[in-house]
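Supplementary Methods S3. Complex input for the flavin-adenine dinucleotide-bound model.
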Amino acid sequence: MTNDVYDITIIGGGPVGMFAGFYAGLREAKVQIIESLEQLGGQVAALYPEKQILDVAGFAGVSGRQLIQNLQDQLDTVPEVERHLKTKVTNVTRGADYFTIETTQGTTRSRAVLLAAGNGSFKPRELRAENAEAETGKHLFYGISDLQRFANHDVLVAGGGDSAVDMALMLEPVAHQVTLIHRRNEFRGLEKMVKKLEASSVQIVTPYLIQKLTETADDRVQVEAKRLKTDDDLIDLTVDDVVVNYGFIANNKDLQSWELQPKLDHRLVQVNQELETSEPLLFCIGDQAIYPGKDTLIATGFGEAPVAVNTIMKRLYPDRRLPIHSTALKR
Ligand SMILES: Cc1cc2nc3c(=O)[nH]c(=O)nc-3n(C[C@H](O)[C@H](O)[C@H](O)COP(=O)(O)OP(=O)(O)OC[C@H]3O[C@@H](n4cnc5c(N)ncnc54)[C@H](O)[C@@H]3O)c2cc1C
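Predicted complex, serialized as structure tokens:
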């Protein structure tokens, strides 16, 4: 952390914060990105690097890992944009001319702040079943960071949301057999992916809930599942691995302890059409921002980033020209 006063401090280096950092670099703002994890990339890098993302403009399909690598390459074209990793923002206060931002690595100052902190810190919602804790990391997983680890295995995927469906389809060509278990008969997901699931070799087991995991002598795991709304209808499945996808528990309480308090809606930050919060010069984009019709998608956040950055630049430098349209001049 330096004594400099930045034009824009971006809090959160997920995909949206990364793109905002790049775009602010194009606008020649003095900018820094502060990220609490040891890597950039947010949920995409931390939770689903192997997943194929289908709904980012310009890609017929891109893995989470590749998308973040591309964002990193794009950000590297503006090396003057500073990045502070393993640095968590713990408080933001407003002074007469700038915000003071307290972090775990010291204090910094900025004329405008752009929140891009997603859902805050996040962790997977855990399986509540006998022996689940002991099996975590052995036969029970909450994400796929290396698809090949499951090669030729019998894998049970648990969950009924779009991530569980995506995960089952992602494993299908690699694993020996994939089974998808869900407590309801219906699956939520993009229509195209649910159709793909129906046409796949993935075995569907519904409406069942996992109750117990037991390690077998040959280093597999026996899964006991109960049929819902019945007393004693139990089934046993023996597989190599169980991958649970029950969603994530987000902790975005951090912001509530800051002195600066923008208006919230269910812990998300309310913004106007220019992505400004109720606090002047405090902006918010990506999953952390809420407004009518908001979708928490990467594409949405990518669209919000230039709007916020351009509005900030207009405010800080009212005499500067608006962005020229050819970004090619930068290189
Ligand atoms: C399993 C799964 C699959 C998904 N699939 C898709 C998909 O196919 N297509 C799609 O468009 N979207 C998908 N999404 C949603 C997508 O990942 C999010 O919309 C996207 O990550 C939002 O980006 P973001 O940069 O706003 O926030 P995040 O990715 O959440 O990044 C926020 C960053 O801020 C950091 N941070 C938080 N608090 C602080 C702090 N106090 N100080 C410093 N840093 C902080 C966090 O560590 C994090 O790195 C999926 C989500 C999940 C969980």
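The chain is about 20% helix and 30% strand. The mean pLDDT is 92.
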